[in-house]
Design a protein that fits this description.
heterotrimer, A mainly alpha (about 260), B alpha/beta (about 550), C mainly alpha (about 200), A: about 260 residues, mainly alpha, two-stranded antiparallel sheet, about 70% helix, about 5% strand, B: alpha/beta, Rossmann fold, 6-stranded mixed sheet, 22 strands, ABC transporter ATP-binding protein (chain B), cell membrane (chain B), ATP binding (chain B), ATP-binding (chain B), cobalt ion transmembrane transporter activity (chain B)
């Protein structure tokens, strides 16, 4: 059953860390790479992130996720490398095209930042079950109604994807063509997407009813089936992360 | 003391014409432990009544509301849905949309309502275990709700509301979207709960089940309560069909035989109540005789197909299809739908060939075949996207090259045929699901193909819908079209088709006259298909042969 | 609708959010199956705004990018703000009557595209010095930089080229679908109906 998640089940210390701590890490890690503009520092942060991924036994799973951003990275390297406004120091020339050191330097920095962004999120999403994260947020005061929205998306999208085959069959059975010129393909977009939309909007009524009759809007205090997961060192880690973060920020602005 | 009191209940949906009341002056009471059946045609207001009893009307739907509903002493109008939810559990047709979507296991899914009500943890676990046991789903606790079959899902839905310990359980056609096996699973647990003394209100089209369980039946029509009486009283009405209700088979047979209880004048409603000393004559009536119409011909030779390699769904099928309408029966997963998709070239055979009037299907594309073969899928919601019925019906005809004039004409004729004349300009999603099925049917029929294939046309249809489908099948055959029909409803097969093919595990285990098909006990068992109710009844009344229609039974003295 | 800013969301409006995100997802999926040169990945957000107002639209937008970030591409977190703004603008303008006819819907599409580009530009500059990862947009960006135009202008042009045509098509499709929705669906998300006692 596809539940729409990148979560990889492994037995590692990173998996046992409080999801909120990992969320904090992700935020700090990304923010820091944008606060410091020193190549070496950014590289160090990236290495840190990689180390955590390795410790979480999920390093190889981040590569395809980075791959999704390949086009963005490639575009950054080419465009910034060749055309960045600061074009002073000529690095070398490829035929008639001059390549400047400043542009490449910037392109390299941004690439490091993008890779770190994706990897830092990877620390969170590869090692955390989405429902654990949402449950952790719920305990911190996220409204249960909003928690419902986050969790149901993960299950409803695969159900909707499963519809695509049926709809394509039904419309092809009525003589709709899906291959041909651009206009023809564009014309078949609505017959394909239309039933999905009508189906899912219509279903919102039934699902709302199903929720209502199970007390979704009850005003009284609610309870939880599962005990609160206790994560070890949650507070310590959070304090540690915050200290590091503040230290780097101070260092950046003092030096 | 009654658990439910309804007094002069009136209700109109918002944005509705002032004169159209979905519920019109209903009054009745329900006592603790009673089992109430609600019957009537698709537009009778049964679902709206279920909403009113669970507080969704008026709190969720708003609109205009008159009269009172009391659950025990609780006045529905002055409480919120979440308060009423603890007293009244509602289960409806579509099992899929009753899963909350926010829980990843069946166990947690059942907990959803309990968490909202603030039930202490220990008690939650107890209640969940108890309701899983009652619904026979103990083994499913760790499964993802969406990975279950329809019948299992529906039982999870029931378990989820039962765990909230309601005083009353309302079931609104809980089996209409399930296959026979799933439906049987649900009925089994409903029977169990009824015996356990739970107060149950059930809307249902399968009258046999209501005849067996119900203490009382409410017959509804156009938002009004026509009768509130004992099952025997309601089912003995001679005008039942006018209200879109088909009486149980025993009643139909008793009507034909004129077997009434001498004191009450009522028909027996279950087989047990049939007088044992009846002298019945059985005579087989062969209708229409051999077919005279010529139709297109499909020849299938050594057909093989599998979705995964080495796991064939269709295994070496050989058959010739032509002439009178053909029924295909067999359990889910037997390959019936795959077979018709192959005929329609939506799938490509891995081996073997399909020849349609001398042309191999592989030499043609699905889009080209669209003008030769029409395939009507089970779920109309997978295809409907236009905002007017007429445009939806014209989509196929225009695609296959009919001129707008011809397409309009065909579309109108077919809407007339399926009984939707006058609804051309309506939005398909403002119609009921049963009517949408008819729209989908018309949209294929308007393509005027030589061959028409139906996948489960009777599912979710009431009595009049089924009669309509039967009429359509006959009229297509009279126009010289080849009609093939996948069906789960054996009563309908017996009544409508001359030729039946039994599918089991990707092959045909029988192909021949319907009367012989239902005599193949081994083949039927292999395909997990039951004989028609009438056939079973005749057998119990002492007839060894196969009876397919009511007019094949007569009391002996009727011949004198 | 009494006010479009009501934060008290009905259950139907909440359940609309996952549906909208699913529609976004399938819009994108079908567009790529049909090899259309557009994303059309926000039809659901736009429809949710038209049906249930700017708040629901904005939440749908944010949750869409967060979930997409979680399940496919973390970079989409960055554009959560853009998605929220798409939902907000559509919801406000729809409420003010900009979906009463097709001409107005085109204007709405242009406005949504323009504002989306405006919001995306600073994000693009902060996070990747101005590029978008879209080949045509970045080609324009590079050309403008080569002619020594300012970075922000080049980046804005990059976003405009990418966003405006896509959003015009998205809003137009959504408008056509919205107009065709049955009454009972359109009324469902309205939280302010009264019970009339008869």
């Amino acid at each position: 059953m596809n539940n729409m998640t990148l979560y990889v089940k492994k037995d590692s210390p990173v998996h046992l860390v409080d999801p909120l701590t990992k969320l904090l890490f992700t935020f700090f890690s990304i923010t820091l790479t944008y606060i410091v503009s020193n190549h070496l520092a950014v590289l160090l942060i990236l290495l840190c992130t990689f180390t955590i991924l390795v410790a979480g036994k999920v390093f190889k799973y981040i590569l395809p996720v980075i791959g999704v951003s390949f086009l963005l990275i490639l575009s950054i390297i080419i465009v910034q490398g060749f055309f960045h406004p600061d074009r002073e120091t000529l690095l070398f020339e490829v035929g008639p095209i001059p390549i400047y050191k400043e542009g490449f330097s910037i392109a390299f920095l941004i690439t490091l930042r993008v890779v770190n962004m994706v990897s830092a999120f990877g620390v969170l999403i590869l090692t955390t079950k989405p429902d654990d994260l949402v449950n952790a947020l719920l305990r911190k005061g996220l409204s249960p109604r909003f928690g419902y929205v986050l969790l149901s998306v993960l299950q409803i999208i695969p159900q909707m994807i499963a519809l695509t085959g049926k709809i394509t069959d039904a419309q092809r059975a009525r003589g709709m063509e899906t291959e041909g010129g651009l206009w023809l393909r564009f014309k078949s977009f609505i017959p394909l997407l239309g039933p999905v939309i009508l189906n899912s909007l219509n279903e919102t009524r039934e699902r709302s009813i199903a929720l209502e009759i199970r007390g979704f809007n009850a005003k009284g205090p609610r309870t939880y089936l599962h005990k609160h997961e206790t994560y070890r060192y949650g507070l310590h880690l959070k304090i540690l992360l915050t200290v590091i973060f503040v230290a780097v920020v101070v260092w950046r602005f003092v030096s | 003391m009654s658990v439910l009191t309804v007094t002069n209940l009136k209700y109109r949906y918002p944005a509705q014409d002032k004169s159209i009341f979905a519920l019109n002056d209903l009054s009745f009471t329900v006592g603790k432990g009673e089992f109430i059946g609600i019957v009537g045609r698709n537009t009778a207001g049964k679902t709206t009544l279920c909403y009113a009893l669970s507080g969704l009307v008026p709190h969720f739907f708003k609109g205009a509301y008159g009269g009172d509903v009391h659950i025990g002493v609780m006045d529905v109008l002055s409480y919120e849905i979440s308060d009423i939810a603890a007293k009244v559990g509602l289960v409806f047709e579509n099992p899929f949309s009753q899963m909350t979507g926010a829980k990843f296991t069946v166990y947690d899914e059942i907990a959803f309502g309990l968490e909202n009500l603030g039930i202490p943890r220990e008690e939650m676990h107890e209640r969940i275990r108890a309701s899983m046991q009652l619904l026979d789903i103990e083994g499913l606790g760790n499964k993802n709700p969406f990975s279950l079959s329809g019948g299992q899902m529906q039982r999870v839905a029931i378990a989820s509301v039962i765990a909230m310990k309601p005083d009353i359980l309302i079931l609104d056609e809980p089996t209409s979207q399930l296959d026979p096996e799933g439906a049987e699973e649900v009925f089994r647990v409903v029977g169990k709960m009824a015996e356990g003394g739970m107060t149950i209100i059930m809307v249902e089209q399968k009258m046999e089940k209501l005849a067996a369980y119900a203490d009382r039946i409410l017959l509804m029509h156009d938002g009004k309560l026509i009768q509130d009486g004992k099952p025997a009283e309601v089912f003995s009405r001679d005008d039942l069909e006018l209200y879109g209700v088909e009486p149980p088979m025993v009643v139909k047979v008793s009507r034909t035989l004129q077997v009434r209880n001498e004191e009450t004048g009522l028909y027996p409603i279950t087989q047990k109540e049939m007088p044992a000393e009846l002298d019945i004559a059985f005579h087989v009536v062969e209708t229409s005789g051999k077919n005279t119409n010529t139709t297109s011909e499909i020849v299938v030779r050594n057909l093989h197909f599998g979705y995964e390699n080495g796991n064939d769904v269709i295994r070496g099928l050989n058959v010739s299809l032509q002439g009178e309408p053909i029924a295909i029966i067999g359990q889910n997963g037997a390959g019936k739908t795959t077979f018709v998709k192959l005929l329609k070239a939506l799938l490509t055979p891995q081996r073997g060939e399909i020849v349609i009037d001398g042309v191999r299907s592989t030499d043609s594309t699905a889009a080209k075949l669209a003008s030769r073969i029409g395939l009507i899928f089970q779920n109309p919601n997978d295809q409907i996207f236009k905002n007017k019925v007429i445009d939806e019906v014209m989509f196929g005809p225009l695609n296959i090259g009919q001129s707008p004039e011809v397409a309009t004409e065909n579309a109108k004729a077919m809407l007339e045929l399926v009984g939707l004349a006058g609804k051309e300009e309506e939005n398909p999603y403002d119609l009921s699901l049963a009517e949408r099925k008819m729209v989908a049917m018309a949209s294929i029929l308007a393509m005027d193909t030589d061959i028409v294939i139906f996948d489960e046309p009777t599912m979710g249809q009431d009595y009049s819908g089924k009669s309509k489908v039967k009429e359509i099948i006959h009229s297509l055959y009279e126009q010289g079209k080849l009609v093939i029909c996948i069906l789960h409803d054996m009563d309908f097969v017996a009544d409508t088709f001359g030729r039946t093919i039994i599918f089991s595990e990707g092959g045909m285990v029988f192909d021949g006259p319907t009367r012989e098909a239902f005599a193949q006990e081994d083949a039927l068992r292999a395909a997990r298909v039951e004989q028609p109710h009438l056939t079973q009844l005749a057998r119990k009344l002492g007839y060894e042969g196969i009876i397919l229609k009511e007019n094949e039974l007569q009391t002996a003295n009727m011949f004198e | 609708m009494k006010s479009m800013w009501s934060l008290k969301l009905s259950t139907a409006a909440l359940v609309l959010i996952p549906a909208a995100i699913g529609i976004n997802y399938l819009g994108k999926l079908f567009a790529s199956l049909l090899k259309l040169p557009l994303w059309v990945d926000s039809i659901g957000t736009v429809l949710a705004s038209m049906l249930a107002g700017p708040i629901v639209g904005a939440i749908a937008g944010i949750v869409n990018n967060v979930v997409y970030g979680f399940t496919t591409d973390p970079v989409s977190f960055v554009y959560a703000i853009t998605s929220a703004v798409i939902g907000l603008v559509t919801g406000i303008m729809a409420y003010k009557g900009w979906i009463s006819n097709i001409g107005k819907a085109i204007v709405l599409g242009l406005a949504v595209g323009f504002i989306a580009a405006t919001v995306s530009t600073p994000l693009n500059i902060i996070f990747w010095e101005g590029t978008t990862g879209n080949i045509w947009g970045d080609a324009l960006f590079a050309t403008m930089l080569a002619q020594d135009m300012p970075l922000w202008l080049a980046s804005f042009a990059d976003s405009i080229v990418v966003d405006v045509p896509d959003k015009v098509v998205t809003v137009l499709l959504s408008f056509l679908i919205f107009k065709g929705l049955p009454k009972n669906v359109k009324n469902m998300y309205d939280n302010t109906g009264e019970i009339e006692r008869i």
